[in-house]
Amino acid sequence: MGCIVLIKICVILCIHVCFLFPALNSPVMKLLRSLLLALVFVSGFAMALYALSYLSLNPDWGFLESKSPSVKSGVVWQFCFYGHLLAGIVAIVLGPFQFIQRLRKRYPKAHRLAGVVYVGAIVVGGLLALYSAAYADGGPIGKSGFMGLALAWLITTVIAFAKIRQGKVNQHEQWMIRSYAVTWAAVSFRILIGVGIAAGLTFDISYRLTAWFCWLVNLGVAEFIIYKLMQARGQKKPAYQETITQ
User: Fold this and answer.
1) Highest-confidence range of 67-81, 208-222, 232-246, by mean pLDDT?
2) Where are the domains of the chain?
3) Which of 4, 118, 186, 214 has a CA positioned 20 to 30 A from the CA of residue 192?
4) What does the H/E/C string look like for the chain?
5) Tell me: the pLDDT tens digits for 138-158?
């Protein structure tokens, strides 16, 4: 947990350094942006490795220990849970590669193929997550938070896919940033629970709040990044706002 928290702090610091001063397009800034992407990739890859541990099918592993036997023994629940797990692993590992400009330019076909796989994984994973969320811990607050997460995951990703199909590259890029921000909630969730407990909250309260904040905070960071990117490119507002006002 301490290692993941350290990665999170480094990511936040890099975001501030890289995007608060976008005009400083120096080699140092480029290096820090690369470091940011690397940290996001490493934390996502670490999350994927952790998620793979659930494939041991141990019914008492991790948070499964808190599930009632009637829930975790259900065939439909198992299908949705493990399907969502595998889809999430694919999405969180593939996502960072889609933001590497050099790869996009050098291997455009691979970029498009990876994008289709990423979108497909989230559509499948998001739909399965909607079912799983109905059995989430944390009462109505926890359940609604995870349902909101699944919907945000689906909506941001489907819009990103629709924008590139329409040839709107800038809008596609912005929605992909939002999509991966929601994908990265798998990492934020585990960090923020620890932060809540360290702040003096009980595990149950921290769990309920984190079900919402793990993706809302990430979307807030995504909007900040998009805003700074638009500033650096001389655009006054994100593309989705331009669409609304037209």
Assistant:
1) 208-222
2) 2-245
3) 118
4) CHHHHHHHHHHHHHHHHHHHCCCCCCHHHHHHHHHHHHHHHHHHHHHHHHHHHHHHCCCCCHHHHHCCHHHHCCHHHHHHHHHHHHHHHHHHHHHHHHHCHHHHHHCHHHHHHHHHHHHHHHHHHHHHHHHHHCCCCCHHHHHHHHHHHHHHHHHHHHHHHHHHHCCCHHHHHHHHHHHHHHHCHHHHHHHHHHHHHHCCCCHHHHHHHHHHHHHHHHHHHHHHHHHHHHHHCCCCCCHHHHHHHC
5) 899 999 999 999 999 999 999
